[in-house]
Amino acid sequence: MSNHFSAANLKSPGGDARLDLTDLFVFQAHDAPDKTVLIMDCDPFLGGSEFHPQAVYRLNIDNNDDALADAAFSFVFSEPERKMQFATAYYATGQDAQDPEPGGEVLIQSTPVGFDAAAMPVDIGLCRMFVGVRSDPFFADADGALHNFQWTGKDTFAGKNVLSIAIEVPNDMLGPSDTIGVWMTVSLRKDGKLLQMDRGGNPSFDPILMPDDEKDEYNATQPVDDVKNYLATLSKVLESQGYPPGEARAAVLGVLPDILHFDRNRMAAYPNGRVPTDDVFTYRMGFLTHGRETSGGLKPHDDLLAEFPFLGLPNP
């Protein structure tokens, strides 16, 4: 799994697939070097069918390496009606970016969510956005990982769909630095308050590395507290896989805080950003097992697009 099924016992946060974030991608726009593409996916196997109307989906941007959001793109959705749903996108900076409520500038209001192959991106000034169903780009032999690395050669995620939010934005909207950190969150409104239900930065982090009894707490916390909260726990996980203690600590500090870093002066390939063809599952299996295991040699999905929003059309 990338971030699929990130709650305890490999379930969706809150028992709701719509609140289950799956993948985060960050890379330079192919046709515009002064722009960056950010993609967040959710709803593994399309278990919920639409975005949660009481949730706030968010892309958080840290541009000064303090593990706090300096810019944020928030997305909220209407109640679905007659197989239609509408999205509103916000862009916030400064202190507003750290407020869990959607705020700042309204980029676009009530744009239709695309539920079929006819859905197209929309232009928002110098930005582009897509919200809707896409083919899941993640590829992994999850059955093999769950059965003591007995690889089956089958891609668990081939032919599956997810809900996707993709934006292409000018680099200056992300801050003055050439290097940014990005993580995704989803929060649910309950009794008038927003409760964070899931988050993710590095791929295959929570489902693979985080102990089961820590997952729900991790999903509700913030990256700024990750080293304090999880350095000791994750170091023990790696030590159990054969890492010497000092090496385990250093390896964990390479992924904490759980933020995906991207230097746009270098080619995007995980761990510098992430593109949909990156074999992050093999990377994470090697990381977990001190290099003993791979993940069966699966290939990226062949339905990826060469242009925005890059993820393949919905599977039937």
Question: Can you give a write-up of this model?
Answer:
The chain has one domain (8-288). Helices cover 15% and strands 29% of the residues. The chain has six helices and twelve strands. The protein has helices at 142-146, 206-209, 215-220, 226-239, 245-253, 280-288, and strands spanning 21-28, 35-42, 55-62, 71-77, 86-93, 105-112, 122-124, 127-135, 161-170, 179-190, 193-200, 260-263. Strand 3 and strand 4 form a beta hairpin. It starts with 20 loop residues before the first strand and ends in a 28-residue tail after the last helix.
Structural class of the helix and strand makeup? alpha+beta
Domains, number: 1
Could you tell me the mean pLDDT?
97
Secondary structure: helix percent: 10-25%
Number of strands: 12
How many distinct helices?
Answer: 6
Query: What's the SSE pattern?
Result: EEEEEEEEHEEEHHHHEH
Rg over alpha carbons: 18 Å
What profile does the largest beta sheet have?
7 strands, antiparallel
What is the end-to-end distance? 22 Å
- Catalogue the unreliable spans: none
Instruction: Give the overall silhouette.
Output: globular
- What percent of residues are in strands? 25-35%
